[in-house]
Amino acid sequence: MSNLELPVLGQDDQVACCTPMVREPLGEDAAIDLAKMFKALSDPVRLRLLSLIASHEGGEACVCDLTGPFDVSQPTISHHLKVLREAGLVGSERRGTWVYYWVLPAALARLSSLLQAPAGAR
Amino acid sequence: MSNLELPVLGQDDQVACCTPMVREPLGEDAAIDLAKMFKALSDPVRLRLLSLIASHEGGEACVCDLTGPFDVSQPTISHHLKVLREAGLVGSERRGTWVYYWVLPAALARLSSLLQAPAGAR
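Predict the joint structure of the above. Result:
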């Protein structure tokens, strides 16, 4: 992206990256790239972590907010957060004692647009 | 679903199943269910198969249309199609010699809505 402003989702400049798969078949490279992102979403704990981050007040969550709801250890949570970060779904930053996480909206929008369903199909 | 008509996507009766994760955190059961669908999407060949089916003329594709573009064997394609079907992403029907596949739009819409990005987040 050439400027620091984030795109308004659904605008024309996003179309090239987010063509719904009902409109045209995916190329090999795009499929490899997207499959990695879907793999990061293929674990229930990671999905819940992502949704906790995404829905957290202010759009970001401290790692200290993310361990309570789960029956898994802190290192396991950290591992899942790393997978989400490496898949390009969340960003993170250390501030003092804690690491903060936020979702990367362009990544979510890319997947969401890809999966847009056909209105008239059965 | 109580009738044979498919829902028009984006209508109110779909909202309960498709709340964006930026709006509220996912529950455990929903996360387990959705993770299975994302797992089906976590393979590049399956993603390309799904997109070939989804974008095929008439909204459905014969298995005979789906083997040509891939460097993998027919049994491998059949296995991937089975995974997509078991995840609830495609439907299928045998007609004469061939099996035909189509995407299930409500499933795609559910995932697409779940991943809708926050417009104002960073």
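The two ends of chain A are 37 Å apart (CA to CA).
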